[in-house]
Amino acid sequence: MALPNQVSPPQIALSSAAPTGVLGADAVAVPLLTGDEGPTLGPGAAELLDEIDLDVFALLEHHKATGKTGEVVEHPVLSREGLTNDGLRSVLFVGVGQGSPVDLRRAGAALARRTKNKETVATSLAALSDDAGLRALVEGLVLGSFGFHRRSEGAKEQPVNRVVLAGVSDAPERQQALERALALAGAGWMARTLALVPANEKNPAWMAERAMEIAESSGLKVRVWDEKQLAAEGFGGIVGVGQGSANPPRLIRLDYTPRGARRNTPHVVLVGKGITFDTGGLSIKPAEAMMNMKRDMTGGGVVLAVMCALADVDCPVRVTGLVPAAENAVSGSAIRPGDVVRHYGGRTSEVRNTDAEGRLVMADALAYAVSEVKPDVLVDVATLTGAMKVALGQRTGGFFSTDEALADLIATAGAAAGEPLWRMPLVEDYEERLESKVADADNAAGGPGAITAALFLRHFTGGLPWAHLDIASVGDSPVDAFEWTSGATGFGARALLHWLELREPLAGVTT
Ligand code: BES
Ligand code: ZN
Ligand code: ZN
Asked: Is 285 designated active site?
């Protein structure tokens, strides 16, 4: 990616040695579990205490350590006498709660934050965990290390360079679990990075260039429509939203075909909202509300990141990724309130609010998918409505689904990935609010905003099983919270990959 001078995630390796046996580590981290009678030391601690002279119980008591998830107690190693590894400088006791995957993901992120600028950390945090725990831990370590900057003198701090997961088998199955976790966490990392690139660098053509790089590196087919092709083929929503900007719109299509695919291999389409900046257009946003709108392409970034990782997670179904990309700008050529756009396939929308632009571009991409890709399932992901933040806050995404089995698959994947998604209802009674005096629908039907937006999109899904992820509120985290770093979260990349790596991602879905 053409992003110079960014920090890189730590390298992560498995070792069957005890953490104290990892030569060259400047820190050793061992788990601390919560227990009924205070915290208990986990694997690796006994070997550590054999080598260093430390009254660990006094230390933990002094810090009032409980072993709760994410708590970290660090202590310097002053004397190197009797150490197997004489590079050791500090020991860390990391709270892992009950040691569940969620605990381990959060503990991994906490450890990553506390070991910034260190060279190598050897940790026994993975020693008690199964594959799910190992994967979660690695996701936490990588994503807790995330950083992004455009500072002339380089990043303020560097992630720990190397993490050795000690005291675990390095058998091929464990190695595979590690590779999967790195692919998933890497997708989260990429989605965050894409969202954080400033809009003076990131326009629709830039998004298309990133897609072409991903196609090249991951062996995907790629097609990009420019503004002339979009107009010629009837993508009126994308053209309309993009017409006010000096940076013209694009539609991006990426295709993944699994190894050994047959004619009847199921096909999924992912659509991601790619608004590279949302001023609101002529229905302009107040300055405060515009501040983070370079991130309004988070859904598109999630789709690109997921497409990039599908081969690495051995996804068994065909996947087509579509990203309608446009800049919603203010200018003399911008779309106006009251304009009517004609979407791909002919359905029309009255643009009563130019700030409800996401659904206009998503509608074209969904209609194109139904008519030209003819998938078995449609899933879209978009920072679509501020209303979602009011409904669910900033720690849980919302989704809608027309299929019960698909809804269960998405909710389960979100929970397993640490990206919780709460199902919202497609209330039929609100359908009448979409009515327009002049067109097939009004793009700003009013409240309840997240639901009417979903109902608007449903008209373009051709009756296919469909899930719509509205990630407006969770695309951004106001603070560092476990594996979420303050700023862009890349929310959705991990959830979608947890779904698409299943052996049967469409199990039970009515296709
Ligand atoms: N991009 C915004 C939604 C959004 C809001 C994303 C806050 C992230 C944080 C979207 O295009 C928008 O402005 N939606 C309007 C729709 C309304 C005008 C019908 C909204 O939600 O207010
Ligand atoms: Zn908007
Ligand atoms: Zn928007």
From this structure: yes
Ligand whose nearest atom lies closest to the CA of 276: 3
208: which 2 tokens?
């298309």
On whether the CB atoms of residues 91 and 54 are closer than 8 A, the answer is: yes
SS3 of 215-242: HHHHCCEEEEECHHHHHHCCCHHHHHHH
Least Cα distance to 511 among 171, 265, 256 occurs for 265
Closest ligand 1 atom to 387 CA: 21
Residue 359 annotated to the active site: yes
Q: How far apart are the first and last CA of the chain?
A: 37
Residue for token pair 């990206």: 419
**Distance, CA of 333 to CA of 327 (rounded, Å):** 13
Q: Residue 4 above 70 pLDDT?
A: no
> How far apart are alpha carbons 246 and 227 in whole angstroms?
12
pLDDT tens-digit series, residues 128-173: 899 999 999 999 999 999 999 999 889 999 999 999 999 999 899 9
Q: Please give the distance, rounded to the nearest whole angstrom, from the Cα atom of residue 206 to the centre of ligand 3.
A: 18
d(CA 388, CA 395): 11
Question: Which member of 285, 389, 423, 433 is catalytic?
Answer: 285
Closest of 388, 394, 378 to residue 457, by C-alpha: 378
Task: Give the CA dihedral 214, 217, 223, 226, nearest 10 degrees.
Answer: 50
CA-nearest residue for atom 8, ligand 1, is 472
d(CA 441, CA 454): 13
Query: How many angstroms separate the alpha carbon of residue 221 from the centre of ligand 3?
Result: 28
pTM over 0.90? The answer is yes
